[in-house]
Amino acid sequence: MPQSDSIRHSDLESLLKDTFLQSIHHFQETDSTNTRAIDVLATNDSILTPALVYAERQNAGRGRGDNQWWSTRGSLTFSVVVDFQEITISAEQKPLLPLLTGMAILRAGQQVLPAGEFALKWPNDVYLAGRKLAGVLIEVPSQSARYAVIGIGLNVNNRFSDAPQELQSTGIAIADASSCEHDRLEVLRKLLICLGDLIKSFAANEDFLVDWPNYCLLTGKQVTLRTGSTRSTGVCQGIAPDGALMLEIDGSKKRFFGGVVESWS
Ligand code: BTN
Question: Which of 112, 118, 194, 245 is paired with 45 by a 20 to 30 Å CA distance?
Fold first, then answer.
């Protein structure tokens, strides 16, 4: 079948065997898989987690802040619901989940495209050949801080020559870099295996951040970070062991735990 055809529910179910997933919630089309995941949690108190909420097509994908996420045929858009107690991630470890998720996507990307130039942009964007390949939106449902919804958008076969004009020079799909289409189910399988493995080793206190400096897109660059209405500009000194972005501003090192990186050069 052409690689961009829909993934069948029966094929998705094979992920229950090979990954850490315990249930799958499949939509042909929905607004946002994160919104659906939060709804599933609100209406189903016996949800088996980790749960995959997968949509073949999202018509109102949400990004960080006020951003939207361009979701089209050939991309992968999904959310994974995890229960912090079950995956034994402690309160101190929770803030590192975004960085961990970016690393899992990067590792899966390297398996699909070993020669690809992958990089991580704090806290959780994944870049390929200098352009944004994947975005992550992690939300904790207001009704229960026990769960996290890890929303991932990964550009696989959705070529950016077909993207809205404003994204064409900033985004990339794996197929743009490889010049061939990829089996999205297999990409999803690899990503979920990497995510499950990383969560497991992190719960056992293995430090995945040791690998970050090898991929950090911002280290040594002049970075502008927006936190609410405040902008901070400084040279990135890398990522601290607790996941903070470190910027040198007027000779002193400042640590940031939130915000949106607006620019870097
Ligand atoms: C960003 O880069 O700003 C984050 C983008 C996250 C997009 C994914 S697609 C699946 C999930 N559902 C959403 O509505 N958003 C996330």
Answer: 194
User: 139: Cβ below 6 Å to ligand 1?
Assistant: no
Question: Which positions ≥6 away from 257 have C-beta within 8 Å?
Answer: 95, 243, 244, 245
208 with 222, same domain: the answer is: no
Residue 260 and residue 144 share a domain: no
User: pLDDT tens across 99-135, in order?
Assistant: 999 999 999 999 999 999 999 999 999 999 999 999 9
Nearest-5° angle of CA 145, CA 97, CA 53? 70
Reading the block at residue 239, the tokens are 């990522």
| Closest atom, ligand 1, to C-alpha of 62 | 14
∠ CA 250-217-154, rounded to 5°: 135
Tell me which residue has its CA closest to atom 3 in ligand 1.
63
Q: At 244, which CATH number?
A: 2.30.30.100
Ligand 1: nearest atom to the Cα of 153: 9
Q: For residue 71, give Cα distances in angstroms to 47, 65, 119, 125, 160.
A: 26, 17, 22, 16, 11
Contact between 238 and 221 under an 8 Å Cβ cutoff? The reply is no
pLDDT, tens digit, for every residue of 181-228? 999 999 999 999 999 999 999 999 999 999 999 999 999 999 999 999
Return the CATH number at 43.
3.30.930.10
The number of residues in the chain equals 265
Domain count, the chain: 2
- Whether the CB of 146 sits within 6 Å of ligand 1: no
Domain range enclosing 138: 9-213
Task: Please state, in angstroms and rounded to a whole number, the distance separating the CA atoms of residues 141 and 52.
Answer: 16
Q: Do residues 179 and 256 share a domain?
A: no
